Amino acid sequence: MREDEFQNGVLGKSHPVLNVNSKVTGNLLYTGDMKLPGMLYAQVLFSPFAHAKIKSIDVSAAEALEGVHGVVCYRDSPKVRYNGNGEDSSFKPSELVFEDVVRYVGDKVAAVAAETPLIAASAIKLIQVEYEPLPFYLDPEEALAEGACPIHEGGNLMEEVCLSGGDLDNGFAEADRIFEQTYRVPPIHHAALEPHVSLAVYDPDGKLTVYTPSQDVFGQRLNLSKIFSLPMNRIRVLNPAMGGGFGGKIDLITEPVAALLSMKCGRPVKLVYTRRQDISSSTTRHGETIYIRTGVKADGKVIACDYKVYLSAGAHSGATSSVAWAAGGKFFKLFDIPNMRYRAYTAYTNCSVAGAMRGFGSPQLFYAFNSQLNQIAMKMQFDLPSLMKKNLFNPNDTDLRGQNLGNYRIRDCLLRGLELFGWKDAWKEQQESGKAKGRYRIGVGLAAGPHASSLFGVFADTTGVMLKMNEDGSLTIFTGVSDMGNGSNTIQMMLVSEVLGISMDRIACVKTDTELTLFDVGAYASRGTYVGGGAALKAAREMKEKILLEASEILGCPARELVLRNNGVWMADGSGAGISMDRIAAHAHNEHEKDLVAAVTFGSLAVPISGGVHLVKVQVDTKTGEVKPLAYTAVHDVGKVLNPASVEGQLHGGIMMGLGYALSEELSYDEKGALRQRRLGDCGLFRADQMPEIQTEFLDSYESTGPYGAKSIGECATVPSAAAVANAVSNALGHEITRLPIRPNAVLEAIYSEAVK
Fold first, then answer.
1. What DSSP letter does each residue of 350-412 carry, written as one string?
2. Where are the alpha helices (DSSP H) in 501-623?
3. pLDDT at residue number 89
4. If pLDDT is split at 50, 70 and 90, which confidence band does 1 have?
5. pLDDT tens digits, 576-606
6. How far, in Å, CA of 258 to CA of 672, rounded?
7. Largest Cα–Cα distance of the chain, in whole Å?
């Protein structure tokens, strides 16, 4: 039976995210706002070299400065290597809190804790360091060249990933046309409004508490336990609030430094990165060089695809291996191609550490994939929508590696998107614009992208939720799920409200505290609704049975004759007889001497694929090279929509990120390995006044394994965006765009290339 009938009318209606009033009034307390008695302020000394050995370091003058309580460097650091990514702290550990080798401009050299931020900053300037510069590499292929200086012991190849299916050689032999291209994408900054920050407290009893806006408090606890050799019962990590994450707040960044200083000083220590420090010394999206070769039959059926990518891991291992493997899995989930091979070479470079960012490798992958399909359509004179329809998966198909994709409606997204966008008229406008040869050209493009909804099949993907009924019949939910502002905790509360008939205003949420909440894998892999919601639903159902047991005893009737609604339990016959939740709580306490509590762990049941198709119309100024998006349409399959406003907001935000990735965002390095981008304004973020008119729609679909039929939207919202824009610009110019971002000079070069042909 389909579970998409919302009996209590909570699901399917828009609800504001948790703490919305505190957020919009500026009253929500973030970690950076916190101040504890005796708290010290930390500052970090960062490396000016891309790669160097620290020959000597003298911190005596800094230690002697009045108001300084502690200075730490590699001599004070635990000698335990860790992986900063919270997914698996034991996987390819490469990092120390401080080390006598620095591997990128912005790497940590030393840190100070002092009475005021000004004193700490003054002390940093007093630290004397002598460096021995070493060779450095900013490009992964250069780092992997024979004879390259090793950035880490064992060489610069971190890992090679190879996934395949079918017979690639035979596929290319049967192809009527073969297309090859190289695509390049840059690293970019996450640009969350809240920079990286943490507040560490090491108390006299030897317990470490860390306040931090983390997407993965349990992963960070595991890492801190490993680094400082503390049992987990003596480490508490909690997330008071998060001002955006986008994947950038999974890894340890400031937390180990604040913790080490607190341990040394015996006082609370807060470390807040400035925006400049956040840009240079936190994680980025992976910069990549992609080689793709595709074989096509004369009728447009793609029968072979060979994909090779070099990923710049940056100075440490982080999430790079996970990103490479995850992108490899998604490589097989867009087009139904019988012969495919994916190869990824992950290389240490002397750049900022690359990590998780919204899409987890998919925006890079599907930029290349969709661009190649657009190139095929251009060269073979196919209608792109028809070519895409010929190759997309159908619902309940199984991919080349044997995974069932669930009720995957990517084809329906395409059909509805073409209709909603008005593709035929827009294409005609593009053709007329090209023939006119005026200053402004119109281009239209489309792209498709999938994304998973869980980590099922990778490792145990679990979330724990506890529900506790209070004496007045109100409810508190305890959840380890981190909320970046995307509404994951709100969805959990809505599911509980729907099942139990307890209104949202009578449900409180205690979240992301390793000491108070049950374990959660982390806020990534677009698992918030599917897995976090699944856990809330499981807990609510267990609580429902407990409530009905009490209510049936009070009312003297079988539980099957009762319904939960309006903050009580009522006879299903409509007679109006029933009792309120506070009486049920009192009965459980007074008659049975117990609290009504449900504590569950939910593991994901499958990995259903979400999908979206994005269509865009752009205007290209052939005189200046400027590209202006004019109209944008996105249609997504997210299963059942539980909170319409939240899903809509996620999609608009994802589109904005994708437009910036396509047209303006980039982190680049100078000849000394230092980032050129030092301010937020340098990073090329797309602005609100640059946004085109957007129309969105969500299919009325249903995923049988999801809570009330729902699956993911968060990351898929941004996956096809850059590819759609790049295809629109390529179609406007009649020349394929092979590098992001598409800056005006690249457009002018493309126009010149076409003119001299």
1. SSSPB---TTTTHHHHHHHHHHHHHHHHHHHT--HHHHHHHHBPPTT-B-TTS-B--S--HHH
2. 533-555, 581-592
3. 57
4. very low
5. 899 999 999 999 999 999 999 999 999 998 9
6. 29
7. 89
Asked whether the beta carbons of 467 and 479 are under 8 A apart, the reply is no
- Residue 622's contacts (CB-CB under 8 Å, 6 or more residues apart) are 439, 440, 441, 747, 751
Residues 6+ apart with CB under 8 A from 533: 488, 491, 492, 495, 642, 706, 707, 710
Distance (Å) of CA 720 to CA 334, 361, 448? 11, 12, 5
Alpha helices for 229-333 (secondary structure H)? 255-265, 275-281, 320-330
Q: Which two tokens stand for residue 611?
A: 């999908």
Q: How far is residue 470's CA from residue 80's CA, in Å, rounded to a whole number?
A: 44
CA torsion angle for 544, 545, 551, 555 (degrees, to 10)? Answer: 130
Element (H, E) at 197: strand 197-202
Encoding tokens for residue 570? 């009522």
Q: What 3-state DSSP class applies to 658?
A: helix
Among 407, 408, 543, CA closest to 469: 543
Tokens 């880490």 sit on residue: 152
Average pLDDT over residues 443-450: 98
Residue 409, number of CB atoms within 10 A of its CB: 26
Write out pLDDT tens, residues 46-59: 999 999 999 999 99
Half-sphere exposure of 685 (CA within 13 A, CB side): 15
- Preceding omega of 741 cis (within 30 degrees of 0): yes
> Nearest CA to 757 among 729, 732, 733, 724?
733
Q: How far apart are CA 426 and CA 445, in angstroms?
A: 10
Nearest partner of 286 among 394, 228, 365, judged by Cα: 365
CA 395 centroid distance within chain: 26
Whether 585 contacts 529, CB under 8 Å:
no
Alpha helices in 144-183 (DSSP H): 168-174
Cα Rg, the chain, nearest whole Å: 27
| Contact (Cβ atoms closer than 8 angstroms) between residue 248 and residue 355 | yes
Rounded Cα distance, 243 and 32, in Å: 10
- Report which of 281, 266, 255 is spatially closest to residue 103, judged by C-alpha positions: 281
307-327 pLDDT per residue, tens: 999 999 999 999 999 999 999
CB 387 within 8 A of CB 752: no
295 closest CA partner among 205, 172, 464: 172
How many whole angstroms from its chain centre is CA 350? 24
CA end-to-end span of the chain: 62
Q: How far is residue 318's CA from residue 355's CA, in Å, rounded to a whole number?
A: 6
